[in-house]
Amino acid sequence: MTFGLTFEKLLLIGLIAVLIIGPDRLPRAAEGFARVVRKAGEYLRDTKSRVREEMGPELDDVDWRKLDPRQYDPRRIIRDALLEEPQPATPAQATATIAEPVASRRAPEVFSATNRPPFDPEAT
Fold it and tell me: What is the pLDDT, as a whole number, of residue 86?
């Protein structure tokens, strides 16, 4: 089971709850518990349907095992990246990698009380 709870542990928790609640209030507590379980089931179903609506039909095409974080081994990722064949660059990628010309580097101007920076009254 989940969270390390076995059937025996759940049975023991239930027995202790019955002893604490008592036979008089037990039916009301069981109804409340059943109501909470029903509401949780409805919430999960609604959430699942909303995810399917928002993600669309491609949700079924996702291989969830690939996205499992327990499968990420840095050594395997690096090995796969190194052994992977390089993809040829398309013309769109080739133009995107061309560097812009570098502006000529000149010394920055030093402004003082007599040499003030330009002011534009319409800019503010």
Answer: 74
pTM for this predicted structure: 0.42
Let me know the angle formed at the C-alpha of 100 by 97 and 103, rounded to the nearest 5 degrees. Answer: 155
Integer Cα distance of 81 and 113 in angstroms: 58
1 has a pLDDT exceeding 50: no
Distance CA 66, CA 77 (A): 12
Per-position DSSP letters for 31-99, written without gaps between them:
HHHHHHHHHHHHHHHHHHHHHHHHH-GGGGG--TTTT-GGG--HHHHHHHHHHSPPPPPPHHHHHHTSP
8 Å CB contact between 45 and 38: no
Q: What percent of the chain has pLDDT over 90?
A: 19
